[in-house]
Amino acid sequence: MRKNYIIISVYFVLLLLQAPFQALLSQQLVSATSATYRVFFRDKGTETFQRGTALYARTEALHSPEALKRRAKSLPQDRLLTLADAPVFEPYLDSLRRVGASILLRLRWQNYSLVTCSTLQLEQIRRFSFVRAVQPATAKLFPQRDAHTLAPQAQTALQSSAFMQMMNAVTALGSNCGTLLYGDSRRQNQSIAIPQAHEIGLSGKGVRVGVMDAGFRWREQNSLKAASVLAEYDFIQNDSNTANGRSGLLTDLPDQDDHGTKVLSVLAGYHPQNLVGAAFGASYLLAKTEDLRYERHIEEDNVVAALEWLEARGVDVVNASLGYAEFDQPDESYTYSELNGNTAIISRALNNAAARGVLCVVSAGNAGRRGFRSLNAPADADSVLAVAALRADTAAVVNFSSRGPRGDGKIKPDIAAQGDTVIVAAPTGREYQAAAGTSFASPLVAGAAALILSAFPELPAYEVRRLLTSTASQATKPDSILGYGIANVYAALRQAGTVVAPEILSYPLWDAQRVGISAVPRGMSLRATLFVRFQGEQQFSPLELRPNPPTSLYLTDIAWTRFGGNPAECYAVVEDGSQVRRIPAQGFMRFLPRQTSVPCGIPAQVLPINKPDFVREGIVPSPVSADAGFATLLLTTPETAELEYTVYSTYGSPIASDTVRVSAGISTIPFPVSQYGRGIYFVQVRYNGAVQMFRFIVR
Hints:
By secondary structure, this protein is of the alpha+beta class.
């Protein structure tokens, strides 16, 4: 009886499982007979594309305000959006689904969709009247002229006012890390003069940077977990996780997110004494496009989708440390003559992004040992900055760095930065390592571009590109090894005009708050004014910001009595005779008395911290009455750091100790004395590696 019960139970379970097994088997059979194709559509539907129509409204909704502001810097107002930006017509995709096709990607700029379907389904798709053409995803993209291509950026005058139409918001004074401790990463940053830009107070703040790569394990990295990542998307598995993961039966290879994590750390890393990224203060959007399981054209299609996603979300700069030339069978490889800037799928996509105002930076490739004509796509693209790799601490190219010219003879690469012994975040998240490749030279230049845009947000991408190439080491004699030569971001900034950090700084003195800006004038004349509004006031009052040579600081002191214990609002205006700059561009910043905010990068040692003659460092008051309850330790503290103090008796016995975090300025640290008997005491202070001893009396 028991045996029969078991047999019946097993039979019942098999009946329950039969349908799922049949479905799985059916899926496997379909998958075995399916392939991936590009389906090109004749149009974007029957709707008219013009301002005021539903199609225009849907297209505008796809693009963030930041994307439209960036486009306005290089495009006419009536051409900010074109039909190429409109979404793929959804009813066409519904028709593909009805015949059984699976939609993998929809690409707006070239008006096609990447689909998986069987041969029988493909024949049905070909018969649709709205389908212009079909090609296997293993093929190169059709060589037709890009539909609805935007006009070249340089044809339109700079429209800086469009960028100035920012949200009118109040912003609190921001970063407060002062002196940057690069550790071994100083060498790579110094290769293109990035520390000099950091020391002005530039960190990439206010700039959006897109990074396309094989994946990003940024949440686990000591140098990346505090990065400003606005969004991320995996275009391989179609989810919002760009770290290693699993989707259905597809599992990432163990090192899938290794390369992208390292590349991102060169840009966005911030871990003092270990790694400081070129543009650690920028905001980032991450796109996972490169599939390490194979080398196929579909990865280029992923890049197209990623670029459309990044561009629509307002990125100013894109870094792509990717390269394609030879593909696994049956995909068609590119001939070198086809690396002409306008044939490879990825190169055309980056040109399309550049036409919309995005500065695109890519690696030149690592096939330099083959000699000249060893580039890959997208380093051949017309509008990108293709970056060659330098040997550490030299002006010499690394032997693996790909050489040009490109397939049609045009000079490539465009520029160079260190690509050897570059300090990156290792995949463990706890350690750092040295890496080599043009993949790590490229993010240095992308970071340099972000620093320029942080200082000059009104500049269009083509002008930033011109500044970087025209100030590089061999700008007048470019070649096919280093292009225009070694980048120099500080020189590019100086050529752009008066450089002003995008943040106002503030720190306490003895009885006042010192407030100001960091600026490097283009010429001899610079007038800087701080406008302050205290609580309860209707108008902003102007205060002259005075230069403090030899530093780049322009400062004023505001007595604490003016604040009444409340925050104040401010903005600064800088005039150099040819241009007026406002910090922030619109709105104002809020700051508090007795608090410190020094933009990251400005060295603590340049902050002028002068005490009145009657103020001496040490314990005040002394003698102090035990009945008073507290004495105060008064110190000059040039930067934000941990301070340790220990109180000793006359006999050298420790009585009390504490660790406090102090800000830049003059710090006043109260400590209790109510339990002390009458006598002489000593306080030992440890701050930034220095030790001081002070004496005081309790009566």
